[in-house]
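re: ur question from earlier - yeah i can do the single chain one, its not a big deal. heres the input i used so u can compare w yours
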Amino acid sequence: MASVASVLKRKDVQVAFALAGTIVLVYFGVLSSLVRQWSSDDNYSHGFFVLPLAAYFAWERREMLSAAARRPSLLGLLVILGSLVVYTAGLLGAELFLARASMIGVIAGSVLFVWGWAHFRILMFPILFLLLMVPLPSIIFNQIAFPLQIVASQAGEAVITTAGIPVLREGNILQLPSQTLEVAEACSGIRSLVSLLMLAIVLGYFTESRTGARVLIALAAVPIAIIANAARVAGTGLMAEWVSPAAAEGFFHIFSGWLMFVVAFAGLLLVQLLLARVRGRKAQPVLAGAA
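and the output i got, formated as tokens:
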């Protein structure tokens, strides 16, 4: 005869699948639009990796979830109802961000309503991680992208001028002797910034047990992505003048983007190694004292 614990565990799995199925049915249109945008918008192509990673993070916590006390909270029902109101407002107002974000609210509220605070705290990171799959509203995206374009343009101007090449900058336009370079939205660096931020969170999760170190790795993704993109813009201008104008477009332009992203990720690894070394140095006096 199966034990009470195993029966309860099986019931929790069944409830979880039932909830997941219900959410998919309710949000099928929203999920479909997300997949279409991930497929067509390179700024959010990382969205395909968010769901599997969040599911893995939740699965990794299965033993803690099994041992946690089950105390359903009515507050979860309020969160679900509030999220559904936001979902309805998003549909009526044609605001995709609200409709998409409400889905994460429904997931959080369902965990809280069915299992309680203990389970919610355990699953908080995987749930919050899902926010990375939701594209930002256009008005916020543009408010971030344009300043990044200007920063990349200014950095490119400074480096190219230092190299002895005359350049005239007007906003995000760089006028070189051989051609004109435009630091367009696609070259603002926001694409690499969002992807690098996700990688930084995943890297911190797997390599660090300290919350502070994980936050520092995630924060480091911002300046690293900005510096890498600025270097790409400057390098494109220099190659266009020193080698050929063709270096600013086509294969070379795309390859430089991938190359600088790899360099940026290497920078993240360096930050993580430095944090690990600092942790090791702090631990040495403690070990020496214990000896």
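Confidence is low (pLDDT under 50) at residues 286-291. not sure if urs matches, ping me
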